[in-house]
Specification:
With 240 residues, the chain is α+β, with helices and mostly antiparallel strands. Helix content is 25%, strand content 22%. The protein has one domain. The protein is built from five helices and 13 strands.
């Protein structure tokens, strides 16, 4: 009976994670849309998390855009790969440098440059991520792998002009404002004050590159990852 219960638990965990693993699902887990800088767009960032326990996501050739202005004429995500259960942080490579963002936030985060950055509005915006220029198709929202509309009012946390907002639980729907919180130093995501950034020497609060699931989610992710790896080994003939 105990063996059966353990098998059922693992099967349930695998079922929860199987769909994300199959399609290498990405989530937005942090957004800094109103940094403390006279040049907001240079220091904005968007953190992506790969929900798959087994599959990486190659971002080269993808498109990041919002609903303002004219559609883009080419893909704008330069390169980068999101490892299983890993993160990358998208930033504006036209207005900033990899060295500068690393100096501000540290070298631990994996930053990925984006050309033609869609400047994020301080009072709310809609942005999306497409897995190629063909699927982007002049900003065809139905094809977007990610489609988020955020605000600084209502269910979304109020902006303070310094801190990012972050998803409170990796299992939560990142499209729902009630699932987000304003970053605070020492919060559940390990937010901290950046080094002075830009010519004004401004600092911000965030945790780019760091995601910490709630305990129940962490246990489920770990169990599902182990089950997924076991299933993959068996498919490859390595199981016994």
């Amino acid at each position: 009976m105990m063996r059966l219960a353990a098998a059922c638990t693992m099967a349930a965990a695998l079922a929860v994670l199987a769909a994300p693993a199959a399609r290498a699902q990405l989530k937005v887990t942090e957004i800094l849309y109103n940094p403390a800088s006279s040049d907001d767009a240079a220091w904005e960032y968007i953190e992506l998390y790969n929900c798959s326990a087994v599959d990486s996501v190659a971002l080269g050739g993808w498109v990041l855009d919002d609903d303002d202005g004219n559609p883009l004429t080419s893909s704008n995500v330069l390169a980068g790969t999101v490892a299983p259960l890993g993160t990358v942080v998208l930033f504006n490579v036209d207005a900033n440098t990899l060295t500068a963002v690393r100096d501000a936030w540290g070298a631990a985060a994996r930053f990925v440059g984006v050309r033609d950055w869609p400047s994020l509005a301080n009072d709310g915006d809609r942005f999306g991520l497409w897995d190629g220029f063909l699927s982007y198709n002049s900003r065809h929202w139905a094809n977007a792998r990610i489609d988020i509309t955020y605000h600084d009012w209502g269910d979304w946390p109020a902006d303070d002009g310094v801190a990012s907002v972050h998803l409170v639980d990796l299992a939560a729907d990142c499209r729902v404002g009630a699932n987000w919180a304003l970053s605070r130093v020492g919060d559940s995501q390990g937010a901290y004050v950046s080094n002075p950034a830009g010519t004004g020497g401004d600092t911000n609060v965030g945790s780019p590159g760091s995601v910490v699931p709630e305990p129940a989610t962490a246990a489920l992710v770990a169990l599902g990852a182990a089950a997924a790896r076991l299933a993959r080994r068996r498919r490859g003939g390595g199981g016994r």
